Structures are given as structure tokens and as C-alpha cells.
Amino acid sequence: MTNIAATTAYQARSQGQQKKTGAARELGKDAFLQLMVTQMRYQDPLSPQDNSAFLAQLAQFSALEQMQNLNSTVEKLLALQGAARNLAPAYLGLVVTALDQNGQQVEGEVTAVEFAGGQTRLVINGKNCALEDVLKVTTGGEA
Predict the structure, then answer these.
(1) CA distance 97 to 88
(2) Terminal CA-CA length for the chain
(3) Which CATH fold topology does 91-138 show?
(4) Backbone conformation region of residue 125, classed left if phi is above 0, alpha if psi is from -120 to 50, else beta
(5) Where in the chain are the domains?
(6) What is the pLDDT of residues 39-62, one digit of tens each?
(7) pTM (2 decimals)?
């Protein structure tokens, strides 16, 4: 059961904070926890919230925290992928040892860089090799 006093108390506390815009306005795990604690503080003592509802809220809090952690990890992964994509042209003209699509080692000069299907691929001796399959990189003549 929601209590108007609880909502008012939370709003009064929030108004003292600086106004946020954009994604920062979304409720995070701290706001969710504050709402849950405020709800418990102002619940009716004659008809308290049952344990299953409280456990459901804790599960929601845990799920929210895990989703935020997953989102953070995916953002970092996408940033790394973008960085690798931007650095791939630096391999042009270098002698590279890598694994081709069949798992065979290919050694030679990188003659092209291809971006297809969300992957960055190096062209070595006419064979496509994924950037993550590079084993060794040397300057020309040091293979």
C-alpha cells in the first residue's frame, strides 16, 4: 500500500538535490532502495506488507543491479570493439601471423582491412583472418 506521506518525504528529500536531465533522471538502484525503505518505514503497522511481497521487491532490486552491471559491461565491450576497429588500418603493410577461418596459420603482409558483418578482418596472402586471431605482428622482413 502506498502512503502519500512516504512519497512526500521522498520528494522533499529529492528536491534538495540538484535537478538532473537525460539518462540521469532515470531511477537507479539507489533510488529504488530508498523507495523500498521509505515504503517499509511508513507502512501500516496493523496490516504490514507480507513477506512474499518484500522478497519480490528484493528480487527486483537484485535484478535491477545485475542489469545495470550488464549494461556497464556491454558499454565497455562496445567501446573496446570500436577502438579495435579504428586501429585495424595500422596493420596495413605489417607482417602478421594469424589463424585463418579454418584454423590454419597464415603468415604474410597485411594488404587490406575489411569490415563486414560486425567483424574486422585482415587480408593476408589473399586469406581473411579475424583481427582477434592475430598471433604475431612484425615489421617487414622480420617474420
Answers:
(1) 15
(2) 72
(3) SH3 type barrels. (2.30.30)
(4) left
(5) 4-85, 91-138
(6) 778 777 777 666 777 778 778 878
(7) 0.44
* Strand arrangement of the beta sheet that strand 134-138 belongs to: 127-130, 119-124, 105-116, 95-99, 134-138
Helix (H, G, I), strand (E, B) or coil at 142: coil
Contacts of 55 (CB under 8 A, 6+ apart): none
C-alpha cell at 8: 512526500
pLDDT tens across 72-115, in order? 999 888 877 777 777 888 888 899 999 988 888 999 999 998 88
Q: Is the dihedral angle over the CA atoms 5, 6, 11, 16 positive or is it negative?
A: positive
What values do phi and psi take at 136, rounded to 5? -150, 140
Q: State the residue for C-alpha cell 586471431.
A: 133
